[in-house]
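Researcher: Quick one. three chains, 755 residues in total.
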Amino acid sequence: MDMRTPPSLLPLELDQVVFAVGGRRIIDGISLRLDAGPRTVIVGPNGAGKSVLLRLCHGLLQPTLGTISWTSPEPAGGPRRQAMVFQRPVLLRRTAVANIAHALAIGGVSRAQRRPRALEALRRVGLERLAKHPARVLSGGEQQRLALARAWALSPEVLFLDEPTASLDPGATHEIENAIGAMHASGTKIVMVTHNLGQARRLGDEILFMHQGRLAERAPADRFFRQPESREAAQFLEGELPW
Amino acid sequence: MVVTRRTFAISLVALIALGTISAQAQERFITLASTTSTEQSGLFGHLLPRFEQKTGIKVHVVAVGTGQALDLARRGDADVVFVHARAAEEKFLAEGHGVKRFPVMYNDFVLLGPKTDPAKIAGSKDILEALKKVEAAKAPFVSRGDKSGTHLAELDLWKAAGIDIDKTKGPWYRDTGQGMGPALNTAASMNAYILTDRGTWLSFKNRGDLTILVEGDKRLFNQYGVMLVNPDKHPTVKKELGQMFVDWVISPEGQKAIADYKINGEQLFYPNAGQPGA
Amino acid sequence: MNSLSEATVQAAQLVASGDPKLVQIVLLSLRVSLTAVVIACLIGLPFGAAIAVSRFAGRRSVIVVLNAMMGLPPVVVGLVVYLLLSRAGPLGSFGLLFTPTAMVIAQTILIVPIIAALSRQVVEDAWQEYREQLKSLGESRLGAVATLLWDLRFSLVTIVLAGFGRAAAEVGAVIIVGGNIDGVTRVMTTAIALETSKGDLPLALGLGMILLTIVLALNAAAYIVKETAQQRYG
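Model:
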């Protein structure tokens, strides 16, 4: 798979970012830097602002205060070098392969290239025999794998995932986690929100723990789970903070 | 059945092409402005095929009220005018919109009424006396009220009978503002008296209890005139083709065709192109 | 209800006779209204969808006006188009008055607001679902309009049928700009108006029944296509 030709998007720099709606601060002053390399998993109780943070980084939301800067940002209107997978996959009323081809078309891929690359992406997640199936009649797990394949086909530098397996059974979850691992292995930076601590343990290299709109703790995964430094993190891991 | 986007796009283009191609772009035709009562008498269905056979020219008839027909021509939207309201036609000529007026034919009006005939006018040969009786009896009377040739003729008759209809009209006088057919419908449902041209009546199917009560009075005759719209004022007028129609309809051949038109064996229109002062 | 039974018999006789005049009137009606619907969709669908996915000053006023224009009276549209296309009017040199093209123009104007207003509603409702994903993929607004219109095609079929129904049913616009010329611009609705004013009510009712049957058949066909395709595509 192609490696990104420089210049790279990463690192991503957040500086005193605030996101407020109707006077309420959902993100209350976060500064952090995301580097290429480690798989970053964001955890925290409900309402901590995890999904909002993800959307701010991906550009779906604009910060109320503060700045979010990529090292060399994508040109406006150009093909995206980052992608996102949502909790519920949004697929078009077309075949599986056509869904990926649509994304590739937006990415500026030539017509001749789209189908072969789409089929290749399907192969990578094990969906090639469902290529001609209408996407919306696939099972939940298959749809999410398709969404991932679509993101993968774009060869993104960064992949944001917002609770990608929250609606899936363990078998489908396992398949998704494998695919995420494979994408990471081929060079994509993973930034994932999950409420499944087991998943965080399996997939995370570093953990960002969020609490009430702030970054309460940041640590390598094994240290975070063994010995959290902050009181809120400890309480969270003990299950005393609400999921 | 799979409709791909490509088949969809192609069928779309085909549909539009089909819809906008107009076969008539090729044919020779003129636009004739005439009245609803003339068209509904069926005369054109009989007359125009003969003209087309002779000259290859199709005649597109736009049938509206007399006022609207002349108005249409004033805007240059018609090539020939064929109506039956002499005063209005003369005015049209005086304004410079027409070339020359030729009398063509006449038909007659009849006064219809319910069989019960509350005003007791059945069989009368004097239209003015009959109208006076209707007004005196305040019997229900339906008027077209639309400034059509028929309406104007009706107003002239009231005036000739010495009745100022605007003053004396009461609830018995219904000013409907409708064409001949709808007005007849109204009269039939109300059992009212109504003035109509014979042609419309002969083809009218929804008669109810109405029947002809007064006819034959010379004052009930309705003269038709034909005019070519002035090409000097309206350059888009098809003057050669239009002139051919005018020439034909006053020619012996055209006049005979008019006389030949019958409904139930009855002649409707009496050609009088040669008649001076008509 | 004597007229109705007379009408049914007369209608059946008409259809059975395959009367060429009747066939011509029906075909012309279909040609005019279908063409108008197609053109109205080409204009109205993208327009409605574009409004749905955009934010701009005065957007709410545009939506209100668009919704109000669904109720444009056909006679008013007919009158305005007549004045425009008349030889004495600004577009007179095209010589379009009293032609089927003029009728198509008038009906297109009538149904564009319907198509646009209803598609705006449908697309806007769906936009909530698609917005983040399409933005994430980097799709432009123009691209999003096209993507949504195709993805919502089943819901839009109903809107197209509504537009066609309005066009096929109206008489006020086509009678003014077409002139109800026998053999040239006479369609089902104007023929019904003519026969009614001639007092030939059974014939008028018969024509009316034929018109209803055609519209019903078209709706049924579209519904079946839509249902089977929808099942397949989800």
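The longest strand of chain B covers residues 98-114.
Researcher: Thanks, that's what I needed.
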